[in-house]
Amino acid sequence: MSTPTHDPHSGDRPDRGTDTATPGTDPTNPSPASAKGTADTADPNPAAVDMDEPPAGGSFARYFLRKLGGAATSMILVIVLGFFAFRLLPGDPVLKIAKERPMSPAQIAELRSQYGLDKPVIVQFWDYLVGIVTGDLGESYVYRKSVSSLIGEYLGPTLLLTGTAAVIAIALGLWLGQLSAWRRNSLFDKLASSTSLIFWSVPTFWLGLILLMIFGGTLQWLPTGGMITPGLDPWSPAGIIDVITHLILPVVSLVAVVYAQFLMIMRASLLEEMSEDYLTTARAKGLTEDEVRRRHAVPNALLPTVTVVFLHIGGLVAGAVTVEAVFSWPGLGKLTFEAIRGPDLPLLQGTFVVFSAIIIVMNLAADIVYRFLDPRVRRA
Questions:
Q1: Is 115 helix (H, G, I), strand (E, B) or coil?
Q2: What is the pLDDT of residues 311-329, one digit of tens each?
Q3: How far is CA 81 from CA 87, 196, 300, in A?
Q4: 215-225 pLDDT, tens per residue?
Q5: How far apart are CA 116 and CA 49, in angstroms?
């Protein structure tokens, strides 16, 4: 006789594919919580979501417009501040001009009217705003030339000086910073860190004066001022070499102070990365210490350094005022220094707006570049 295959208790167990009602609930009307749980587990491939993508509504266009709006607001405040702050400077430019040659009271009044200084302040401010929008920054009291043309003439030497100093300072600071962090507590680290701290605390103009007295005065190895020897063509081979020799002292003065900041920031950033587990994994794969540092640790440590680099590039241009004055470098810094002695109000206002605009643009560029480098910023 065959054994029956039917389980007499099979009716007591629910089928595996059927839902069971929990006590106190209506199986025909599931609670919202249970419905939500069903919906949450319905995603067949949750790993397909890209965690690096910005959330809904966090597009690059919106991010860029928000940062651009902040930059525009800062620029408006700079323009307003640049007008009223320089009106508080001591000295009357018309009276200073009158001291240089004999002038009657009628001529002084005519000169004041010519410069628009006899108008109410609010009218002068309106003319100033219209000039900025139209690109007409007025006429310099000292040079008797258009401020816009003067800025265009002196901007090139400033960009040459600060651009050269920025490239050298960034390369030197980041290179020494990552070596110092990787060899922390070694003799190299102690020497590099202590030297950078010393240079970081030194005023740029003071260091420039010391270098000028030693290498330009006592040793007479390098020129003491200017950009090129008079009479030389700056585009000829001899002129290019002459410009380079004139560049050495002002560039060293800027680099010595700025590179130290990059070194210390890069060192601190890399030290934080050196304790991460992914570096241990990289070593376990057989990579050498040099490869671990170059391919894994340094790229991640560069993220917080990028913002600082952009900010200091803008500050480097503005900080060239004292260096250009010390070395008589024919740039915007020297132009600003001479405008302060006036006071040459249109020229001061023009250079102030240009310097501020460079810093604001660098801040905006730092925000944009950092968003592309760090996924966390894209999701913020």
A1: coil
A2: 777 767 766 788 888 888 8
A3: 10, 35, 39
A4: 988 888 888 88
A5: 64
> Is the CB of residue 208 less than 8 Å from the CB of residue 234?
no
Q: Measured between alpha carbons, how far is 304 from 190 in angstroms, rounded to an integer? A: 23
CA distances 279 to 185, 285, 293, 297, 299, Å, are 20, 10, 9, 7, 12
Q: What is the mean pLDDT of residues 355-364?
A: 86
Q: Which residue is it, tokens 């996924």?
A: 375
Q: How far is CA 293 from CA 77, 307, 374, in A?
A: 44, 21, 19
pLDDT at 247: 92
Residues whose CB is less than 8 angstroms from the CB of residue 285 and which lie 6 or more positions away in sequence, other chains included: none
Q: What is the pTM of this model?
A: 0.70
7-10-14 Cα angle (round to 5): 160
Q: How far apart are the first and last CA of the chain?
A: 75
Please report which confidence band the pLDDT of residue 244 belongs to, taking 50, 70 and 90 as the band edges: very high
What is the pLDDT at residue 93?
Answer: 74
Tokens of 110: 């005519």
Supply the DSSP string of 46-89, one letter for each residue.
GGGS-TTSPPTT--HHHHHHHHHHHHHHHHHHHHHHHHHHHTTS
Provide the CA 170 distance to its chain's centre, in angstroms. 12
Residue by residue, what is the 3-state secondary structure of 248-304? HHHHHHHHHHHHHHHHHHHHHHHHHHCCCHHHHHHHHCCCCHHHHHHHHHHHHHCHH
Give the whole-number percent of the chain exceeding pLDDT 70. Answer: 81
- Is residue 279 within 8 A of residue 273, CB to CB? The reply is yes
